[in-house]
Specification:
Length: about 375
């Protein structure tokens, strides 16, 4: 957000800035979703609702998990919130004691360590390697867990790396976690439907052996339905945890926006064919960007299997241009070529940058031209 703000400032000063730093799709929110919101306003659905979501939204969430994962949920196991981010905050706020440890594989979504620290707990970073597809190594996880470990934050498809979690790998992680009865798993599935490696949905961590009673599954419509501004997230987990989350929400945000809830009911009920079109467009853009990046001397980039980011290693260019680090790379790129990317150090992975390919083909082509020129 800080990079994007700087880009906006440059734009306001008259520069032709290309912004590939934002975490949102460039597609429009689907028309049936907008229509459902307008109908909800017309029908007077403009008042407080139940803190954790309307019965209609909870039914739609239940149906999603039954349909997509053959996973049955009761209403006490579901909470809808003002965005997925608030659900993560509420869950950690409800459970962390000062000094508790939260294991966060890096690269990680920027908000995780900040939220953990806001709750008085300690983020413990578990580094992953590009050479291992940015997947957390089960043996390293085992060595990192202590009696103080309260949560492990897993996010697949991952922001920023785009890695997805193969079923066997998830099972190996679950086996390690099972040995620590106090540890909970936050499975951040917000990019669940943006996957290129197999048809959706991905594996559900809560279905792993021994994991249902200790897994909070985080999801929402922000990324899947191009609804970042509507602020609607939801989660599923064991009833006592969800009751605690409900209490945090009840004393802070109250219910998520009533109109957004009606819109989310429509979103979750939509035929998934629009997603197939989006995925096809995103795959083409991904391939263009990865191909171009790998042709630039000093850059190497894995092809992500999910989400809409690439996370190339730019160390070679940093060294060749005599720059201090990835932040200096991004600052110079913004100043010289008016192209906004996010430095990898924001995600706990210095030497990398994150580039969102959720932008029009013409924008991506122009951006790749500017990047090539900058790196030359
Ligand atoms: N989790 C991850 C990994 C994300 O990238 C984001 C948004 O960028 C979120 C959660 C939160 O999404 P929202 O609060 O818009 O539902």
């Amino acid at each position: 957000m800080a990079v994007t703000q700087k880009a906006r400032d440059l734009q306001a000063a008259g520069r032709d800035v290309l912004t590939l730093s934002m975490g949102e799709l460039d597609f429009e929110t689907p028309a049936p979703v907008k229509e459902a919101a307008i109908a909800a306003i017309a029908a007077g659905e403009t008042r407080y609702t139940a803190v954790d979501g309307t019965p209609a939204l909870k039914a739609a969430i239940t149906e999603k998990y039954r349909r997509d994962h053959d996973f049955l949920l009761s209403p006490e196991e579901i909470v809808a919130t003002t965005g997925g981010k608030f659900l993560i905050y509420a869950a950690l706020r409800a459970t962390l004691e000062p000094g508790d440890e939260v294991i966060i594989p890096s690269p990680y979504w920027v908000s995780y360590p900040g939220i953990v620290r806001m709750c008085g707990a300690v983020p413990v970073i578990l580094a992953t390697q590009a050479g291992q597809g940015f997947l957390p190594d089960p043996q390293t996880l085992k060595a990192t867990m202590t009696p103080k470990t309260r949560w492990i934050l897993l996010n697949f498809p991952n922001n920023p790396s785009g890695a997805t979690l193969p079923l066997e790998h998830a099972a190996a992680l679950a086996e390690v976690i099972e040995a620590h009865p106090r540890a909970l798993v936050l499975s951040d599935d917000i990019y669940e439907l943006i996957r290129f490696d197999a048809s959706p949905p991905g594996p559900l961590f809560a279905k792993m052996k021994g994991m249902r009673e200790r897994t909070l599954t985080v999801n929402g419509v922000s990324k899947s339905h191009a609804m970042t501004g509507w602020r609607l997230g939801f989660g599923a987990g064991p009833a006592p945890l969800m009751a605690a989350i409900r209490r945090v929400a009840g004393q802070t945000t109250s219910n998520p926006c009533s109109i957004s809830q009606a819109a989310a009911v429509a979103a979750l009920g939509m035929e998934p064919s629009f997603l197939t079109d989006w995925r096809t467009a995103l795959r083409t853009r991904r391939d263009l960007v990865v191909r171009t990046l790998n042709r630039i001397e000093g850059i190497s980039c894995l092809s992500p299997s999910g989400a809409f980011y690439v996370f190339p290693d730019i160390n070679g260019v940093v060294k060749r241009k005599g720059l201090a680090d990835d932040t200096a790379f991004c600052t110079a790129l913004l100043d010289e070529e008016a192209l906004a990317l996010v430095p990898g150090s924001a995600f706990g992975a210095p030497g990398f940058v994150r580039l969102s390919f959720a932008a029009a083909d013409s924008v991506l082509e122009e951006a790749m031209g500017r990047l090539k020129r900058f790196c030359a």
